[in-house]
Amino acid sequence: MSRIHTERHRVSRIGWLRAAVLGANDGIVSTASLIVGVAAASGTGSAPLVAGVAGLVAGAMSMAAGEYVSVSSQSDTEQADLVRERAELAKQPALERAELAEIYAKRGVESDLAYKVADQLMAKDALGAHARDELGISEITTARPIQAAFTSAATFSAGAAMPLLMVVVSPTSLLVPVVSITSLLFLALLGAIGARAGGAGVIRAMVRVTFWGALAMALTAGIGSLVGTAV
Description:
This protein has 231 residues and is mostly helical. Helix content is 82%, strand content 0%. It contains 7 helices and no strands. Helix 1 packs antiparallel against helix 6.
């Protein structure tokens, strides 16, 4: 008897991986940019550290709330579609059967076989079959607001803690270059980890996150320096 070949697909990680990478990236970039901008404007003192801590707390709460609201909107839309689909299955099962069979036929299944497949799937779980094949809603891709909120908040805090640590250990005179360089290294590491977890190209991911992080910090430092000079 042959064994069933099992495969592990990384698409199952989409829900939490997207929120994790977004949270950590935003934590590093926004906090490092804030620290660099304040340091460029005010020079020495505790202002960069205070700004970084405030940015961490506010950013984590904002990420959690934003992810929860946005993913909840997705979840509400999915649920509304499922309610509508359930009603259509109750009112016009024949049309829904034909609709499902047409989907399979467009994918290359012969017409008679497509109807047989539709009949068998609908006999087992009609709503599940239509949710998956007509609406594109599955267990893997379904919206999870709580998971997204907690993941984003936690990873944002972890990302923001990295440039904050550099503020504590860096000499005041070297604060801006140390925070900038180490934050770019953290971003490159994050890009590599995210790419590995998702099975994507590591170098491309590292270059992408590092470039945008460098651009954000450079713009913030420039604006901070101009503001500091003006006042």
